User: Fold this.
Amino acid sequence: MSDLHSINEAINRKAGRKFLPSVAVGLLIIALVWFALAFHRELFAVLVGIAVILGIREITHAFDLGKTYISLPALVIATVCLTFATWLGSVAGLAVATAFCLPILLVDLLRRGPDGFVRNATATTLVLIYLPFLAGFLILLARPYDGLSRVMTFVVLIGCNDTFGYLVGILLGRHPLIPKISPKKTWEGLAGSLIFTIIGGALSFRYLMHEHWWIGALVGLIVVFTATSGDLIESALKRDLSLKDMGSILPGHGGMLDRLDSALLSGPAVWLAFEIVKRYL
Assistant:
């Protein structure tokens, strides 16, 4: 028991955050996702919408520290619109709702006058696309009859990338990947993500989706790129805004956006992969 405690403390020191609470929160999130999908798939769309709103709240506060204004109430309303439109209208609903909400958000900014309009409008557009629009693809994963299998496959892919990249990086990491953006991310951690996400993709596609294992391995390779890119993009945002974490709502993870970063960029890629498999393979 003392050895386990020593290992945990060593990981905490090197990672800069608590490991066991991080695992507990991760398992709780997976349990909530599974319950929502198994009980009523619409609940998953609600969960995604709530997570996005919490993320918008965090990024609104972060931009405010940098003297950039984005309207939290307006973006919350836009998120609700995009969530409902995506569930009811699929990808067309997501696209139309985004095209409808963006000009309204920009017009709303006109009330503040011309000072800082370009900066505020650019930040507002970034948040709309980065959060509710990209998160819409997570909702699209859950819409079909096999939404539970699709989303849980996605969870396996993201979980393997984040968990094993983290563990291998902490235990074996020596060579920084992009130190100016994310000093703790290493090439060794990336290799861990690559190996285990490919394995996780092959197994999940074979046993959850009942598809060829090599398709899952290929999708796993793609997810390593998208998830790592998502993590680095969020790290660049935090560094530019001089923040360690976007928030503190999730023990061991930081803010909601710290948890969503890799999933947001991976959602469209995995959704597209499923569409290609369904139509052509």
